[in-house]
Amino acid sequence: MLRILIIDESRARAEELCGGLAMAGHQVAAVLPSALDLTAQIEAIKPDVILIETESPSRDTLENLAVMNRDMPRPVILLTQESDAAVMRAAFKAGVSAYIVDNLDLARLKPIVDVATEAGFDVVRGSESDVVARFVAALDAYPSEHVVRLTADCPLTDPLLVEAVVATHLARHADYTSNVLPRSFPKGLDVEVMRADVLRIAADEAAAADEREHVTPFVYRRPERFRLTNHDSGRALGREWWTVDTPADLDRVRAMVDRVGDDRCSWTAMLAAVGCRNPAGRGDLALRPAGAGDADALLRWRNASDAVQWSTTARAVDPTEHRAWFERILVDAGRRLWIGVVDGLPVGMVRVDVETGIGTVSVAVDPERRGHGVGSGLLRAVKGELLGDCQVVELRALVHPANPGSARIFGRSGFTEMGLDDESGFVVWRCDRSTFGA
Which residue of 66, 225, 325, 344 lies most exposed, with the fewest beta carbons within 10 A? Predict the structure, then answer.
């Protein structure tokens, strides 16, 4: 028998609820006219479930619920006439377990209470904005050597993909592993894995607001400190949008599931059923993560005579040296490498090497495609890619002081000249993240 606290400003409605709960075999612990000072009431009454009936939940009611769920969480059922989506979202954010709109048939009361109390999920609650601290609280409650982070805007998350990312993480002895640095899976299949001790370091040291809110940026912004790696799909699928950020996104994902007819299918089965829906347009430059087959083209572009002239080393790269470097960079989430493609043909590359959130960008263009805006296109495209995560807060480039062509490209692409770099003698160009979308 569950002890249920009823909150209802209408005594008549409350009496009806009492009768329905008694018929369902539950005990009414108390009836209150409002949620005022709810935490203290919960401590005194000790109910198993809270049932609130109201025309529309007030701000005071939701604020009291939020405090109660932080300090003394209980399943909460809300019966209301209010169908506004914003109010629903606010109610769930405050900790409501079940939101029931319109008049309730008392015969339905028992299964609703059962579902609210028997979902079978353990919950750890914490600060809304300091999410990394909330993760540590969950880790304290459920100790583990590694932590997997999944987000609610990825409803098509595939357990087999999660297992694959975990396997990559363990095989490479990484501190942090994801499948988005760079992105080769559809957006909406994001998986992150990190060592538990690394998560605790982030919680102790992260100071920036976005590092507290988004949990992992403190780690993946610092490849000089943590061992980062990436799990790659082997395909260029980063343009596909399977995430749910808007009602239109939700409608699209529901239509995808309806088309497959199985909400538990693998991500590859989903892709086979719905296909690629966001390909690059004809003549448009798009980026894809570099793969093993790109090694020769990269070496050819890097060792072109003018590329050697304007490089920081001023020498050609040895093929053996290049292949060793290339194998390392393909799995290094702190050094991201993309190939620029137009109509399926590679036209250049762009690389971003990250240290403490600062990305040093390098560009190489196929000599046969120079003079056609490819360099500027690569820079525009990579800024768009970097807006998809929080790793880079600022881009910088080093340009040979006698290379006016590159200087013009960076200037046209939103970079600002900052003077000479003391170590290399090259000109530093800078672009802040706030301008990436401009």
Answer: 344
- What is the average per-residue pLDDT within 428-434? 96
Q: Is the peptide bond before 182 cis (omega within 30 degrees of 0)?
A: yes
Residue 231 in contact with residue 168, Cβ under 8 Å?
Answer: yes
- 50-59, 209-218, 285-294: lowest mean pLDDT where? 50-59
Task: Please check whether residue 128 lies inside any domain of the structure.
Answer: no
Question: Looking at the structure, do residues 268 and 395 belong to the same domain, yes or no?
Answer: no
Please enumerate in sequence order all residues whose Cβ is within 8 A of that of 147, keeping only pairs 6 or more positions apart, or say none: 135, 139, 193, 194, 195, 196, 199
Give every CB contact of residue 342 below 8 A, 6+ residues apart in sequence.
283, 284, 285, 286, 374
DSSP letters of 322-355?
Answer: HHHHHHHHTT-TTEEEEEEEETTEEEEEEEEEEE
106 pLDDT tier (thresholds 50, 70, 90): low
> What is the pTM for the complete model shown?
0.74
Q: What angle do CA 228, 394, 391 make, to 5 degrees?
A: 25
User: Contact at 8 Å (CB) between 220 and 355?
Assistant: no
Q: What CATH number is attached to the domain comprising 8?
A: 3.40.50.2300
270 phi and psi angles, rounded to 5 deg: -60, -45
Euclidean distance between CA atoms 28 and 22, whole angstroms: 8
Q: Which domain holds residue 23?
A: 3-117
**Percentage of the chain surpassing pLDDT 70?**
94
3-state SS assignment for residue 438: coil
Check whether residue 237 and residue 376 sit in a common domain. Answer: no
Handedness of CA 362, 365, 367, 372 (dihedral sign): negative
Distance CA 255, CA 249 (A): 10
Residue 125 clears pLDDT 70, i.e. is over it: no
User: Going by C-beta distance under 8 Å and a sequence separation of 6 or more, which residues neighbour residue 376?
Assistant: 409, 412, 413
